[in-house]
C-alpha cells in the first residue's frame, strides 16, 4: 500500500520535530554494541530528511544529542561525536542536491572543536538553500535554553533595552535558539517511549504528538507517512471549539 497517496499535501505540518530514539536497543537486539546502532541510525536520518524535503515540509528538527547525553559512557559519547562528524561530511551532497539549509541549536560550544568546525562548514555551504531548513539539536536541552532566554531578557530589562511590561510570547520567542523557526506542528518519538525528554518544551505547546514503538534505525518513509496521516486526521483547535474552526 502506497501511503504517500493518502497524504494531503495542502495540510502538511510546517515544522516537524523528531526525537530519534532506540539506536542502542536496536543494536542490542542485533547482538551488536550500541555504537553500531548509532551508525545504523544515520541511514534512517538520510531517508527521513530526503522524504521530508520531497513532501514539501518547510522545517525539520532532529534531536541528535541532548545535554543529558553528555552523562553517557565516555566511549559512547566519543562514538556519537565521530558519527556526527562523518555524517556531516557524507551528507553535504544530500543537502545540496535537495536544496536543504542546515541549522543547529544547542550549547554548541560544548561540542569537540572538530565537530564544531565541520558543523559550521556545512551550515555555511548550505546557507542559501531554500527547499527546507534542517535543524540539528546538538548538546541541546530545553530547560537550559529557557534559562538562557530568561537571563538575556533580564539583562535587557536591567539595561532599559526592554520594558518589563512589554515582555510577551514574541519577546520570549526572540530569545530562544529557535527564534527563526515556526512553532512545532508535529512531534514524533520513536522506540515506544512516551515522554518529551527536555526537547523544545516551549515550541511544542500546541504540537500534535505521535509515538511509535519502531526503533529509530527501522523508521523509514512509510512510517513517516503514517505519522503524517495520523496528524492530518486530527482536529487542531488551539483552544477553540470545533464549530469555531469550521
TrEMBL record:
Mg(2+) binds at residues 21, 208. The active site is at residues 21, 69. It is an enzyme of class 2 (transferase). Keywords: Magnesium, Metal-binding, Transferase. It comes from the Bacteria. Substrate binds at residues 22-26, 34, 38, 66-68, 70, 72, 189, 195-197. Its EC number is 2.5.1.-. Its cofactor is Mg(2+). Binds 2 magnesium ions per subunit. InterPro entries: UPP_synth-like, UPP_synth-like_CS, UPP_synth-like_sf. PANTHER family: DEHYDRODOLICHYL DIPHOSPHATE SYNTHASE 2 (PTHR10291:SF0), DEHYDRODOLICHYL DIPHOSPHATE SYNTHASE FAMILY MEMBER (PTHR10291). Belongs to the UPP synthase family. Homodimer. Catalyzes the condensation of isopentenyl diphosphate (IPP) with allylic pyrophosphates generating different type of terpenoids. This is Isoprenyl transferase.
Amino acid at each position: 500500500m502506497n501511503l504517500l497517496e493518502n497524504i494531503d499535501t495542502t495540510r502538511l505540518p510546517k515544522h516537524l520535530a523528531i526525537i530519534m530514539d532506540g539506536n542502542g536497543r536496536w543494536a542490542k537486539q542485533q547482538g551488536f554494541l550500541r555504537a553500531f546502532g548509532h551508525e545504523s541510525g544515520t541511514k534512517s536520518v538520510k531517508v527521513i530528511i530526503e522524504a521530508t524535503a520531497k513532501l514539501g515540509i518547510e522545517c525539520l528538527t532532529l534531536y541528535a544529542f541532548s545535554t543529558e547525553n553528555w552523562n553517557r559512557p565516555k566511549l559512547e559519547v566519543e562514538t556519537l561525536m565521530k558519527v556526527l562528524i562523518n555524517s556531516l561530511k557524507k551528507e553535504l551532497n544530500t543537502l545540496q542536491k535537495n536544496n536543504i539549509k542546515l541549522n543547529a541549536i544547542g550549547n554548541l560550544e560544548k561540542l569537540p572543536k572538530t565537530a564544531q568546525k565541520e558543523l559550521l562548514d556545512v551550515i555555511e555551504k548550505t546557507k542559501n538553500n531554500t527547499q527546507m531548513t534542517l535543524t540539528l539539536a546538538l548538546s541541546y536541552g530545553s530547560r537550559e535554553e529557557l534559562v538562557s532566554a530568561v537571563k538575556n531578557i533580564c539583562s535587557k530589562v536591567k539595561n532599559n533595552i526592554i520594558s518589563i511590561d512589554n515582555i510577551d510570547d514574541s519577546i520570549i520567542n526572540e530569545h530562544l535558539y529557535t527564534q527563526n523557526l515556526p512553532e512545532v506542528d508535529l512531534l514524533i518519538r520513536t522506540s515506544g517511549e512516551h515522554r518529551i525528554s527536555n526537547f523544545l518544551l516551549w515550541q511544542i505547546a500546541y504540537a500534535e504528538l505521535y509515538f511509535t514503538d519502531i526503533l529509530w534505525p527501522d523508521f523509514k518513509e512509510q512510517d513517516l507517512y503514517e505519522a503524517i496521516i495520523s496528524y492530518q486526521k486530527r482536529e487542531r483547535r488551539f483552544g477553540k471549539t470545533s464549530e469555531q474552526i469550521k
